[in-house]
């Protein structure tokens, strides 16, 4: 579907004062090149000046059949005929003819002239480009300046070179030894000035044959070249190829000889191929074989060929269309650069391919995946079409018409990765195109475009004397075709005269018509009028303003109309396309301001849109730069309007209030938001009230709204917490407590998970974002710290807040020494993430050591700490019973550090640290922390001994324990000297006790320990071993009872 809008894209027009009737013309480099009828003279006119004055004129060496201009290198290339021969020539330095210089140099490709050329190219040169086949069409690359020539069954690519004067003599003695990569982005500046003959930096243009591609039975009518893409057009087929260089020695020989032979064998048959469209990798399945011929000039690798696009059309005979009405024309490859690219150094971000039938045009995007962007359905038969960045210009016999294009939609998505997210938006490339107001002319024949200038050639009478003869020939062919087909049907037993459908089918002429056309019609002396127009298009900003003015007609009648949205989307793409091409800051600033205005208008459209695309209101309003208050004002329904708030507007408000922004709404705006959601989406009121942007809402008024919501929707935990928060704002602590007491603590925790912003604000920017506590959090820290810690742990475990962010919340509350540690302990109990567990173990170990140093009763601490505000939520016993990371205290630790010998806080910290060391904690990373603790105190000694024991150093631990606290040795041995360490009872402990008892015979503690040790040794050894363990100087009467016990056990065994 093509939309039609009454917007006029043309500003003015003027007539070029051409003395003779134009035959062919092209434009570029600020000039219009006109080949007068007869084809042996070219006139150049200045398009940049009023009246298009003549720049220069020069003669050609033959009758020009095709002419093209290259911006890169500022040269013209022509296909000329003379004496029944066809030539390809390039004209360089043509601007020197403006000084009426008669000197013109003619040379062959690759052979540079001496004299004037060596002095800096101060004369026009004609370069003869020899070809083995007759050239049919020619094209220049707008990116590299390379030249593509289409011959019958062959494409030849010439690379543009710049030969320096230093190489002139060498060039005349040796052949070219290398050719550069096809994708090389060499550029040759436009030589608009006149170079001095003494300027040795001036270089001379030349061409080098790079690639020869053979396409059997495929005669191109038109070719195009752009940044390595090669496009070929026949009467009914369009083929796009991509040439790249490959480091491998083998070429990508795509020619399938079987296909070629098949086509040759069937050359005498009439084949009507089916319509076909093959995109991307599927294009290689077409029946058009292409092969590359080696030129011997490859130095950086071989050329590799890949198929990009193939499209075939078939004449619609059954609808009465003739062959002429189904011929392709206007093949074009169009590059587009983004605003952050330089056309002189980079490949284009996008490359588009356009070709057209008389009834329809097709625009494809080639890079980053081949895609059909738009199909243009013309209202009448189109003769030619030209694609530009902003518009598609087409001509019919009597009108010039413009269509919008989707190139900017593709380029914008390449330049801006955030498009199609909640941050930015752009109309899709699949958006239906529209036609703008047409400009009427008489007898249009041809069109070309240069910048804002559209050049048109019109003739009042295009009928030639040959037409009557062709009509007679066509009638004769028609009769022959009818007879041939009728004979075929009769041969198979079908009489076509008995079937009206077959009779109608046979009445159409197509059998004797091959897929060929007659040469282009040339003007004859019978023509009685012609004009060459230059029509200037308006600036994109002016056209945008006209589109906006036109859109107001829809906005007044139906603000949610599809046509209004479509027209504003067209205006958006027009501005985007202009921004891609504009670098001048003043003009760019105006375009950006217009784009913001357009985004606001699109946001208004989508805010009232249906559910399918209402989400687009959010990115467009963001791109507009409007504040929330301004957006609310734009979406207020009129008092007389029956419409309520749109889904897109509610979607925008929801997302805005869900995200953490710095914009705080005033009380008036915040109350209006509450009214909006209470009327349109009451279920979202809890989330709205929890938003930090709504901190200025009227608490009393909002509490009444929530009470009404509770009456209608029922009681819910998040709603109760929200109401409690509002009661807290009113300083009604009694109502606050009553509301919280409605639900158990665990249900309240689930409420915090459902709406985290009841406890914290911030965090929308990721794990590093700043998070701050709410007023409810501050109150819970005072009155219900357990609920606060449980809520924060739940948020952490559900990825609503990160560990560092939670630390910041407790530090801002001033609870870094109490509730923060409680939070770490509770998180350690709940977490299953290994990284979090290791981090928490390290933190808790450090905190416990700090507390031990802070509460040391033996001496004043040198580590000042703020006092604890309240008792820990979890005692050591609670942690041991509920957390696997806290182990049960070893019995000997109770003997070393009996309870009630130190303060309560010190004892709690000691037991928690001892419990951690008794658990699965790896003591390796704890040792550096324990260096801060002295082992002079018994509690310090117990921690160091724990670490030594956990490291398996039982020998040394037994000795140090006997030195410091022998009464704990049996408890220590009973707990640790088991299984594989059982032998330490008699290998280490028994000798130590014997020696120490001998030295201190009256030590009852050592004697008791020795007695217990002998009991264990007697139970675990046989009599012989026991005798060997006895000391030589021991008292027999002391050991005899244990020996007797050992012997009796052995006998029983």
TrEMBL record:
A GO cellular-component term linked to this record: cytoplasm
Residues in the signal sequence: none
Residue ranges of every copy of the BLOC-2 complex member HPS3 C-terminal domain listed in the record: 542-1050
Domain BLOC-2 complex member HPS3 N-terminal: 3-166, 197-475
Pfam family, one: HPS3_N
Disordered: region residues: 169-200
InterPro entries: HPS3, HPS3_C, HPS3_N
Protein name from the UniProt record: HPS3 biogenesis of lysosomal organelles complex 2 subunit 1
Native source organism of the sequence: Cynoglossus semilaevis (Tongue sole)
């Amino acid at each position: 579907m093509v939309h039609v809008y009454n917007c006029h894209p043309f500003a003015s027009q003027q007539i070029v004062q051409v003395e003779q009737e134009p035959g062919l013309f092209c434009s570029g480099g600020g000039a219009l090149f006109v080949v007068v009828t007869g084809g042996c003279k070219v006139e150049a006119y200045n398009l940049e000046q009023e009246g298009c004055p003549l720049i220069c004129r020069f003669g050609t060496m033959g009758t020009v059949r095709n002419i093209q201009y290259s911006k890169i290198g500022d040269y013209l290339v022509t296909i000329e005929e003379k004496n029944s021969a066809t030539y390809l020539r390039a004209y360089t330095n043509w601007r020197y003819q403006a000084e009426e210089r008669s000197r013109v140099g003619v040379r062959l490709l690759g052979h540079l002239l001496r004299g004037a050329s060596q002095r800096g190219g101060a004369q026009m040169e004609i370069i003869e480009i020899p070809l083995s086949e007759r050239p049919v069409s020619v094209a220049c690359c707008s990116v590299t300046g390379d030249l593509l020539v289409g011959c019958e069954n062959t494409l030849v690519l010439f690379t543009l070179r710049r030969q320096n004067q230093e190489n002139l003599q060498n060039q005349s003695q040796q052949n070219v030894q290398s050719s550069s990569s096809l994708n090389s982005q060499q550029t040759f500046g436009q030589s608009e000035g006149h170079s001095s003959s003494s300027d040795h930096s001036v270089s001379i243009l030349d061409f080098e044959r790079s690639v020869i591609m053979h396409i059997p039975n495929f005669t191109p009518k038109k070719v195009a070249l752009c940044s390595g893409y090669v496009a070929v057009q026949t009467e009914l087929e369009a083929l796009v190829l991509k040439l790249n260089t490959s480091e491998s020695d083998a070429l990508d020989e795509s020619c399938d000889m079987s296909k070629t032979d098949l086509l040759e064998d069937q050359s005498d048959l009439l084949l009507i191929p089916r319509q076909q469209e093959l995109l991307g990798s599927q294009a290689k399945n077409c029946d058009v074989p292409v092969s590359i011929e080696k030129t011997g000039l490859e130095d950086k690798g071989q050329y590799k060929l890949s198929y990009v696009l193939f499209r075939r059309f078939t004449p619609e005979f059954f609808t009465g269309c003739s062959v002429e009405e189904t011929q392709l024309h206007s093949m074009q490859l169009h590059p587009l650069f983004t605003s952050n690219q330089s056309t002189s150094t980079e490949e284009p971000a996008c490359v588009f391919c356009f070709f057209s039938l008389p009834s329809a045009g097709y625009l494809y995007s080639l890079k980053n995946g081949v895609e059909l962007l738009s199909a243009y359905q013309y209202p009448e038969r189109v003769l030619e079409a030209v694609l530009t960045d902003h518009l598609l210009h087409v001509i019919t016999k009597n009108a010039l018409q413009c269509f919008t294009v989707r190139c900017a939609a593709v380029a914008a998505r390449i330049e801006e990765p955030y498009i199609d997210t909640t941050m930015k938006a752009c109309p899709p490339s699949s958006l239906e195109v529209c036609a703008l107001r047409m400009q009427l002319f008489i007898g249009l024949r041809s069109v070309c475009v240069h910048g804002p200038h559209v050049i048109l050639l019109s003739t009042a009478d295009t009928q030639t004397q040959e037409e009557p003869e062709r009509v007679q020939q066509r009638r004769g062919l028609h009769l022959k075709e009818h007879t041939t087909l009728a004979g075929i049907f009769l041969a198979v037993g079908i009489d076509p005269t008995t079937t009206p459908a077959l009779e109608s089918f046979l009445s159409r002429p197509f059998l004797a018509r091959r897929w060929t056309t007659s040469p282009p019609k040339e003007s004859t002396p019978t023509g009685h009028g012609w004009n060459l127009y230059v029509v200037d298009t308006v600036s994109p900003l002016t056209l945008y303003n006209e589109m906006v003015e036109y859109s107001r007609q829809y906005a007044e009648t139906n603000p949610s109309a599809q046509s209004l949205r479509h027209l504003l989307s067209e205006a958006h793409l027009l501005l985007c396309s202009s921004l891609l091409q504009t670098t001048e800051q003043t003009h760019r600033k105006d375009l950006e301001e217009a784009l913001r205005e357009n985004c606001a208008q699109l946001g208004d459209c989508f805010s009232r849109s249906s559910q399918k695309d209402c989400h687009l209101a959010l990115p467009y309003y963001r791109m507009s730069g409007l504040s929330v208050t301004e957006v609310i004002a734009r979406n207020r329904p009129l008092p007389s309007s029956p419409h309520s708030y749109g889904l897109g507007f509610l979607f925008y408000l929801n997302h805005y209030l869900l995200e953490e922004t710095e914009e705080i709404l005033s009380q008036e705006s915040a109350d209006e938001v509450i009214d909006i959601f209470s009327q349109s989406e009451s279920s979202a009121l809890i989330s709205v009230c929890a938003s930090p942007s709504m901190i200025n809402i009227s608490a009393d008024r909002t509490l009444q709204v929530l009470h009404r919501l509770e009456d209608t929707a029922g009681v819910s935990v998040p709603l109760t917490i929200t109401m409690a928060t509002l009661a807290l704002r009113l300083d009604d602590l009694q109502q606050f407590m009553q509301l919280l007491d409605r639900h158990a603590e665990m249900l309240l925790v689930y409420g915090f998970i459902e709406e985290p912003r009841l406890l914290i604000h911030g965090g929308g920017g990721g794990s590093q974002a700043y998070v701050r506590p709410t007023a409810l959090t501050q109150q819970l820290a005072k009155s219900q710290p357990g609920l606060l810690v449980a809520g924060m742990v739940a948020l952490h475990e559900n990825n609503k807040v990160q560990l560092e962010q939670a630390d910041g919340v407790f530090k801002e509350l001033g609870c870094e020494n109490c509730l923060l540690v409680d939070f770490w302990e509770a998180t350690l109990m709940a977490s299953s993430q290994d990284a979090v567990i290791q981090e928490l173990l390290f933190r808790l170990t450090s905190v416990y050591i700090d507390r031990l140093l802070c509460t040391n009763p033996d001496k004043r601490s040198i580590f000042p700490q703020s006092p604890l505000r309240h008792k820990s939520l979890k005692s050591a016993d609670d942690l041991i019973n509920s957390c696997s990371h806290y182990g049960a205290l070893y019995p000997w630790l109770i003997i070393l550090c009996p309870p009630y010998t130190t303060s309560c806080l010190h004892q709690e910290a000691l037991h928690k640290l001892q419990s951690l060391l008794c658990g699965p904690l790896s003591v390796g990373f704890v040792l550096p922390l324990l260096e801060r603790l002295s082992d002079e105190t018994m509690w310090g000694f117990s921690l160091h001994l724990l670490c030594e024991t956990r490291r398996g150093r039982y020998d040394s631990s037994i000795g140090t324990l006997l030195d410091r606290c022998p009464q704990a040795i049996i408890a220590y041995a009973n707990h640790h000297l088991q299984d594989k360490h059982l032998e330490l009872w008699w290998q280490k402990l028994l000798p130590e006790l014997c020696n120490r008892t001998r030295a201190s015979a009256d030590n009852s503690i050592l004697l008791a320990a020795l007695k217990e040790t002998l009991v264990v040794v007697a139970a675990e050894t046989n009599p012989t071993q026991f005798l060997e363990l006895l000391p030589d100087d021991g008292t027999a009467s002391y050991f005899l009872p244990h020996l007797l016990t050992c012997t009796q056990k052995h006998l029983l065994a």
